[in-house]
Design brief:
This protein is mainly beta. It has no helices and eleven strands. The chain has strands at about 5, 10-15, 20-25, 35-40, 45-50, 60, 70-75, 80-85, 90-100, 105, 110-115. Strands 2, 4, 5, 6, 9, 10 and 11 form a seven-stranded mixed beta sheet that branches. It has a four-stranded antiparallel beta sheet with strand order 1-3-8-7, with no helix packed on it. It is globular. The N and C termini lie far apart (about 40 Å). The model has no long low-confidence stretch (mean pLDDT about 95).
């Protein structure tokens, strides 16, 4: 079955950086666009970055544009989220997400906490 496993979260100070990874299995990874979504405490899930199947197109939410970079390595079945200049409002659980074979799949999430 399709599995997405995120890693790389943690505690970081304001202005710091983190790189999240999401490893996919059970699907032909290089066929699908991938999305990073985050959910802050008490808030709805917010899509923040997406990348096309070949990495040729990316899109970002205004809240992270210029600070976060999404990329992928199809040879490793992995999508990344490089996060720079982190702010307290970036504190959230970060999920990767894919729509594949007419279904939506989510990872288990990884916690990012930005301390001021």
């Amino acid at each position: 079955q399709v599995q997405l496993v995120e890693s790389g979260g943690g505690l970081v100070q304001v202005g710091g950086s983190l790189t999240l990874s999401c490893a996919g299995s059970g699907l032909t990874f290089n066929m699908y666009a991938m999305t990073w979504v985050r959910q802050a405490p008490g808030k709805e899930r917010e899509p923040i970055a997406a990348i096309s199947w070949n990495g040729g197109n990316t899109n970002y939410a205004d809240s992270v544009k210029g600070r976060f970079t999404i990329s992928r390595d199809n040879a490793k079945n992995t999508v990344y989220l490089q996060m720079n200049s982190l702010k307290p409002e970036d504190t959230a659980v970060y999920y990767c997400y894919v729509e594949a074979m007419s279904r939506a799949y989510w990872g288990q999430g990884t916690q990012v906490t930005v301390s001021s």
